[in-house]
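User: Predict the full complex structure for these chains.
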Amino acid sequence: MVLRQMNAVFVEPSLHGKLSSAFPIAIFASPTHHGCTVGHRWNFLLAWRYLFPKKRFGTFFTWMSVVGIAAGVALLMIVLSIMNGFDTHIAEKLIQINGAIKIIARRPVAKDEVFLENIRRLPHVKAITPYVAGISMMQVGERVALPKCLGLDAETAGSVLPLERFLAKGSLDGLKDGAWVSESLAHECGLDVGDTFELYSPLALEAMKKEELLLPREVTVAGLFKTGWAEADRSTVLLPLELSQELYALSDNVHGFSVEADRKHLGEVCRAINNLLPPGLVAYTWNTLNADFLYILKLEKAMCFFVLLFVVAVAAFSMSSGLMSAVVRKRRELSLLRTWGATRTDLSLVFGLQSLLLGFLGLLAGFVAAAVILHERNAIVRGLTGWLLPKDALWNFYDVETLPAVWSRQDMLWIALLTLTMTLLASLLPIGRMYKLPLVQNLRRG
Amino acid sequence: MEPQDTEVATEIGDQTVAKPLLAVENLSKSFGIQPLWRNVSFTLHEGESLSICGASGSGKSTLLLAIGGLETVQSGTVMFDGHPVIGGRQAHVKGIGYVFQHYHLVEELTVRENLLLPFSIRFGSRQMPDIWDEVLDLLGLKELLDRLPTVLSGGEQQRAALARAVLAKPKLLLADEPTGSLDEATGARVMKLLLQVCRCFRMSLILVTHSPMFAEQTDRRMVLKNGFLSEQTP
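Assistant: Here is the predicted structure of the two-chain assembly.
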């Protein structure tokens, strides 16, 4: 009868509809032939009940602690996911603008060298296109600008660079005999498709020294483009390869080549290309070329992680102060537990477990909150930008239709590990307080 | 010969004398230079009840805690069940149970969980109190098992605290003014139950009380006055 009765209370789930009682049943009840008592893991039960007393859905302290930790975790997760999103976006842009692999020549090189055919035949190589890069002076009426000029082969460039995606106005074929001007530069100089401008070769300076006059070339605007990469969009002109070769007096030579290859095998392909290249030419992957910039991005993310971690730390130590109060409030109970045989380690476990439980619940709630907020991020950002900022400012600058966000399993693991570590460390304060409790005085006092 | 149980007796000549469950010898305690009590000595046998009366501040509660090993002493020894009790060093002496004026029930646990908590701490979950039904019947707690302590009356809480103390079948129950927070009628009922439980389960009892009426109900009465403990004869 007794055994049946005990089982009914500690095991029978129907008697415990509420979360506050269901959890200890699942974890602590251990049916034996004698039935169940409070459980030999009484520390777990006590820790759980201090946070979720019977017949109550948690205490104010419990929920405030969970909300504090959840806020920190959600903030970390949201910020890091958006940073990951922007990093991915930036990486994609860098590849789109420069190609996945770039072959740079120390001296101009002929665009139809034999090694190019060998590179094309390499596994994972998809396409290769020559380029000429430099700076020249453009004049539109009274207005003068010094844009970066990129000469591209209209036939092959499209297979390496997503030119059709960049084109904002005009035609793709226009690059065969006209120039593509970046939108900002065109706006600045008042240019539109069909307009003309004068382009001066840098060699004009050399000519002037020899008291010669090198006339500028008149170029027609065949298209306006926008890459979404602010630096490239600020002041760039795309020219037909032949025109740029003429501009820099390269005859049939070029400054280098852009290679498109399978992204998963870039390192391997780059090594293979370097093995085929003659001296004076070196191939670099996009991340080697932008190593400093990528390092800065990584550093920014690490600093953000470090700074935002303090939010979790504050929440953890605020929880710790709550647990300290609980130790003082429960000092008589704790002393009594000691008279029944509970060791100080047992009691430490009660508070350590409370900390870990709060940390775990905060972590879960934080991840859920972050998932919901990230899912609704575009609506939130649109609301905020519409309310606080000029509409479309974000889209114009970053060229993103939606705010990018990428969940990283590694970030989640780090956040989980550090949150649980901090909550566990925070429990050391109440545990230390508990260790100093005067047993006898507590038992005597009412 | 090592005592095995309280049933163990020593033969002196042709007489058989039961060994005391508790032997207190020359126990002295002082706070600074101010002595609290000096050379306190007495013995207590199995199933025997003893009350200690005295004025407030005379050191009754301190003496009770020293007997249970919870309080340090300057000199003297306490032997419980054949083993020395080391004052202040051990929080828990196996075989000693406590009932305090304040019930100290864990508010977050039900009465049932409160009753089973000390048992779980001592024995783990493999065992159940074998006197569970009897104790609950005797103290009338069966209807209160699923309630929280906060909704119980003072008398009910003290009955629960009493049940919690006796479920592990301690050989000695130390009760520090267990009726101190109760009104006279409820106190009398709890006192009656306390003595009944001790008799029923052959537990020895040391009761610290202010009430001469309750003190008279125990087998032996002692008074702590001016630092000395003396036995009162009926």
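Chain B has one domain: 9-232.
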